[in-house]
Records
---
Amino acid sequence: MRTVIIAVVTIIIETILLWLLSLWIGVNIMEILLLGGISIFGVVWFFQHGSTYASNQVNSMTRGWTGLDAGGVRVFRFKFGPIVFGLLIFILISLVITVVYYGGDLA
């Protein structure tokens, strides 16, 4: 239940942020909905990757300079928590909304 609440709050916050961004740059929210969702997901992925990279770099430097075992090098594994789950649901919802919104122009 806690995961669902955090995911829903994530979706609401992401929607508000993208809506405010669309107002700020003066475009329709439909123009940035899908790409904004993917971009925010990418930022989260880069932060997780950067954290693992920095940890591996520190552990390697410690081992190289002192010879002490500082934990070794870890393989990057993307963590799926409730926030990432909410981001992925937002991307899926925005994809459906975008296809319905722009698909109506094709018919």
Note: The chain has one domain: 2-64+83-103.
---
Amino acid sequence: MPDLSRRKTIALIGGGTILAATGGLATFAATRTPHAALAPWDAAGNYADPRMRALSYALLAPNPHNRQPWEAELTGTDGIAIWRDPARDLPVTDPHGRQLTIGMGCFLELCRMAAAEEGYATDTVLFPEGEDGPVARLTLTDGGTPDPLFAHVMARRSHKEAFDPRPVGPEASALAEHADLHLDGETRDALRTIAHDAWIAEVSTPAALKESIDLLRIGRAEIEANPDGIDLGGPMMEGLARVGLLTREAAMDLDNPGTRANVEATAEAILGAPGMVVQTTATNTRDDQIEVGRRWLRLNLAATGAGLALRPVSQALQEYPEMAVHHDAIHAIAAPDGGTVQMLGLLGYAEPTPRTPRWPLDTRMRA
């Protein structure tokens, strides 16, 4: 997806003049934060029912394109049913729902961890009615053991910018139980090259690019109206949008200077990443995909705890015709004996990433 670089856009166009044109710089800047879209972060844990408390943390989980594809229902006095909302599918870049199912795994693991923090165990049955039914049915019982990684939930982010070029230090060893780490050498370089080439292939495929562009949320009003997708907020982005320099039409035009700069910024970030992480499975069942989501969430939390930033780069793993050569290439390197490469990410040091918008919990609950 277009991981649009704010800094490149600002540097290219020149922010001060743009903002001056909007009038009232200080007032304008002070009112651009989408507080309503960020409120679910502060609401986490503030519910009477322990199931709602667990769900309020779970919805902060990482997920593809920030689609937040989950729906939940309270059942009985101790149960939760979790569905994947098909209205949030990504039919071009995730035609089989693999990536979105991984996102559901992230959600389920964070729900489990949040319940365990309060002493509840979570009995989980995956796909109890097949793929046409809920993804999982959960039952909360006494006996959960708090997970040390839960301490990093509120600081966890999916990084979106370039990394500090310094090599990753020994603190990364804490991540080895969650993924294969490639912190230097030929394999790391080959993975970076494939990820770079796959990124270029995605933005060069009109249908794939449009799927992302359609999910842009430009400015506070759009972000608060639809707090999912790819948010482009803040006074600079909104100032560019107000004077017509940041539009969906421009983002679809690869010859547009701003779009070209953003594509190049992401390409440079991939090639400059100090480390690469890979998660694979021997088979590719829905249960496998859920388990990978659990592992990715734990990897992300472990990276946060180690002072590292993690950025998913999923293009080479996508399953549409224009991506086939890159899909084959990464499997030849990362799964030469068979299996499925499920997740690929960049790892390194970086400045903290801001919170990303979320739908309020009540909007994700089934009646």
Note: The CA atoms of residues 90 and 272 lie 28 Å apart.
---
Amino acid sequence: MSMIVRRLSRAATAGLVAAAALTAAAHSAEAADTLGSAAVGQGRYFGTAVAASHLGESDYAATLDREFSSVTPENEMKWDATEPSRGSFTFTSADRIVDHAQSQGMDVRGHTLVWHSQLPSWVSPLGAQDLRTAMNAHINGLMGHYKGEIHSWDVVNEAFQDGGSGARRSSPFQDKLGDGFIEEAFRTARAADPAAKLCYNDYNTDGVNAKSNAVYDMVKDFKSRGVPIDCVGFQSHFNSNSPVPSDYRHNLQRFADLGVDVQITELDIEGSGSAQAADYTKMVEACLAVSRCTGMTVWGVTDKYSWRSGGTPLLFDGDYNEKPAYGAVLSALGGSGGPGDPGDPGDPGDGASCTATYTRTADWSSGYNGQVTITAGAEPISSWTATVTLPAQQSVSSLWNGTPTWSGNVMTVRPSWNGTLAAGASTSFGFTAAKNGSDAAPTVGTCTAS
């Protein structure tokens, strides 16, 4: 899609984007009952990394649209994805993410312009002058395509070594262009889109250490000489071997004191239960304590698609159920409607109630369709849970408008997109069941609301 056509497309959908933004604002004013709306109430964004290939999955898209106010393309804006052949740009997958985000009134973070990894094979063999030309052309081509549409760009990613030296990482850019390549990339980026925030992004810089000190010194130098840098991104990938540093907040603050914004850009914390919830709480509290911490991004929507899926590091499990960490984050952001206690995700909100009623909507010799209608009580609710117990012989082959988990023949269903209900309002989920010799009706248990 050409830049001109893309601008026309943006104009054509401006009404939808404005409507989405107004809806989000009204939603936030009523009750901060999602991560995004709660963060907005704190003057921050709360975002997630998004893969274009998952947007067609209904639960993925529903959770994304409901909970987050910002998106970062996980791989779709990297060099190998956008310029696989020199001078030949492709934006199909990245456009899909940007278009989806804008239709929902979300901001977009651009990730990433210059990085030593995920380079197409044609880049590394270039000589110094040719590489400089290619780097600047790539920045201009990618940023030019999205000019005016990206909130923040990770201009340069992971340019410093791990360990105690604080040295620059060996890469085609460092080895052939020297230390000046980072400054040149930022100056090129500023000219390409003057309105976008320009960030340096890295990992293992979360506490005060040799690597973060090296980044700090670079940012301090840039600010003193007028090199255009607006923000520093802290990836913040944690586990038991690399826990949240005790000086995390102090480290964010010292960067902010240089006159740049700070952003938590790729947050995930391996673990589960109350321990994971407590670590997520620390992260949110640290960001809220630093006035120039403008937002947080978790690196994925659901554990099942995480790059660290074995460590279950995100806020939603593989079935899109809210984990205790979700309730902890929502609570730390000052939100309502999530689990009342990070250690007890099933704690209902005070006064919240709902009822569940079952009807069979279609019937045939080998199966049937069932529908469960959820109706809020005298107060609005932001989530609900209903149980359906099937006769032992029966099995469910599909379910819509809900997210199920199973324990034997008991199906526990939570909302996919339809958790928030006004007082007295109703929603429903449906399922298809195979009779397997039993025509008995399932039993619907008590509906629980929060």
Note: Residues 207 and 250 are 8 Å apart (CA to CA).
---
Amino acid sequence: MNDIAKILGVDLPFIQGGMGNISHASLAVAVSEAGGLGTIGAGTLAPEKVEQMILDIRRETSKPFAINIPLAIQPYVKDILTLIKKHQVPAVALSAGNPAPYIEPLKTDNVVVMCVVANEKQARKAEAAGADIVIAEGYEAAGINAKEELTTFTLLPKVASSVAIPVVAAGGIGDGRGVLAAMSLGAQGVQLGTRLIATKDAQVHPAYKEALCSAGSDGTMIVGRPYQQVRRILKTPYGQQLLDSEKEEIPLESYLEKTDESHHILGAIEGKLEEGHVNAGQISTMIEDIPTVQELFTRMIQEAQSSLKDISLPVHSQK
């Protein structure tokens, strides 16, 4: 059995990425019911909001799920950890900060701990601190990314060669071919974000989904480099406003205000693409339809199996 699936208690090694304050229980339930690991993001949410999502998930499914905690921006980390223990949440993904102080207490409560990493040094530190899984996320991924800006398929083999614990690939994956490629480079599972937004189960504004489906090869953009706040978003009127603000060299505080979760909600939930941003990974260029999560996962497995059969390598003989 696949190590990721075994550790997480799921059928498929497909993990939903954390989606910050636009997380919602229904999508996480759909992912878990389809055989993957549904995830809700703590974002900057208050503990009572996170708890309500946990209760909603528990009401709709008995299958495993996870909570993503972005340590650097979540103001109630200790309260979220208390909720995880209270409700016996099966798995946690720690990102955007040093996970070491939190790993041992989580494992004491029998929580599977995953750590999002951007380089092999972080991966080794996470493993040494007791993490069960590391998620190697390249900068093809949506949302906030590491300043190194390493691509997934550059980062992944380096991380896989650096640790003994299982590795999950994140960033730029949305079909079976991507799954197969990631596994050939050392991953045992994949994390999906943008591709799951473009599903019938995602409760985001239709304009967001439609924009993903119509995105071309240059459909995403990077903002925040001057502020060491690398973020990949969909190319929209508001995204251009952010770039213009960078050229004007607005203060960091003003930039952070323009890219906070309230603006994320304006774009993603309310569909106001001229007033708020929408996170999107480079996989957007490959999204052409809006299936259910179950349909997507079934197709991905079929694509991976078909692609594997089609691979033919020449035989090299030494003379």
Note: The chain has two domains: 3-203+290-307, 206-268.
